[in-house]
Amino acid sequence: MTATLIRQEDLIASVADALQFISYYHPQDFVDAMYAAWQREESPAAKDAIAQILVNSRLCAEGKRPICQDTGIVTVFVKVGMDVQWDATMSVTDMINEGVRRAYLLPDNVLRASILADPAGARKNTKDNTPAVIHYEIVAGNTVSVDVAAKGGGSENKSKMVMLNPSDSIVDWVLKTVPTMGAGWCPPGMLGIGIGGTAEKAAVMAKEVLMEPIDIQELIARGPQNRIEELRIELYHKVNELGIGAQGLGGLTTVLDVKIMDYPTHAASLPVCMIPNCAATRHAHFVLDGSGPAFQTAPDLASWPELTYQPGPSARRVNLDTVTPEEVKSWQPGETILLSGKMLTGRDAAHKRMVDMLNKGEALPVDLKGRFIYYVGPVDPVRDEVVGPAGPTTATRMDKFTRQILEQTGLLGMIGKSERGPIAIDAIRDFGAVYLMAVGGAAYLVSKAITGAKVLAFPELGMEAIYEFEVKDMPVTVAVDSQGISVHNTGPAKWKGIIEQKISTEGLKSL
Known about the structure:
Helix content is 33%, strand content 23%. The protein is α/β, with parallel strands linked by helices.
């Protein structure tokens, strides 16, 4: 086989192009599967959440701005042909990281840099989202095949790993484990499952298999042809029968597909790793053959469903500048609220700073009394934007701070993504506060409601600084009311029962 000469700049440019492309274009198979889920969804809350995700997807495709404010940690799978030669002064790893750097710093579509060096110590932002996590394989041939993904922290943090006994049930473990993941991975999405090999091999397979297109409905239609396909179909049905639903609000669709990759393992072992992909599924593939860079082809926007998002007529409009604790007490679990006025922002680093200051008896740089705080780390604005995509981050990470913040500052409400844990719910009830949920995976749509933004405190924290946002009709759902009732507890339980009833009366097996 003739050797192929791959030029340094071709790999760098191709990686940069792929990362920009996936920041604003969902894969078409994902859009189609999400639209099909929206069409069959019967839960009003879940249907509303999926609609926001689909409308956000189209807005991002049109505006070429990030689907999610968390533009991810870059993971790359590289298959290098044995007959490839390089025209390069950099290592392949350095070339890939240079592509990442160019993509994330592109002025027309700046992507959020989330990567921190010294993870167990100073946790200092590298400023350009490098380094990527890269997996190499040397294969036959004279091309370089590359899969590029950008994985958000909310879904990555829900990864699960277990060393089962060979006689244990993988299905039982998955069905026991998925409910413990909460909604921080922004369902509906995909589950990638790696089975066999060793612990690290199972984890890599679980990540790699998420690069495959969604095809579960085609698989169901033709029928399984091996044990892995049987397992995929079984898990797809049984996970959806849990009733977790979009954003964990309860509904018919929790997963759009279940992907499985396996590898031979030791006779004493059964390693299993499960990694979810969120509603900001982002991956692309390209091949370098020596003819130049491989750029992605823009999809036809006519392929997106013609949906618009309008809150229902029962949505309650709230002025954040005048809202009172008495007013908050009237809000009902699951109710849609449209927020206008000024809110604060703050997430992990800002909360830690504030708690440290409170513990030292120091005054906070902002007055939280009677205010609402939004758990968000926005993307930097470009052109005439007030702020870049600004969707919510996983609220449970702030649970350990919640009681002290409510008790010592008089904070009235919080806005974030997914459920709250028991310690936060207890604190919310005890102080008559409220937790509101914004849709994860609708970051650009949310940013359209933000009419003003300025940094008030901790500017050195970058996207984790405390901002003040001015908003107009920002849509949220009452997720935990002032009595401590959580829709993330009541919704899935309700819809699990509805699905069980459907199955018993209709024989429903095609969720």
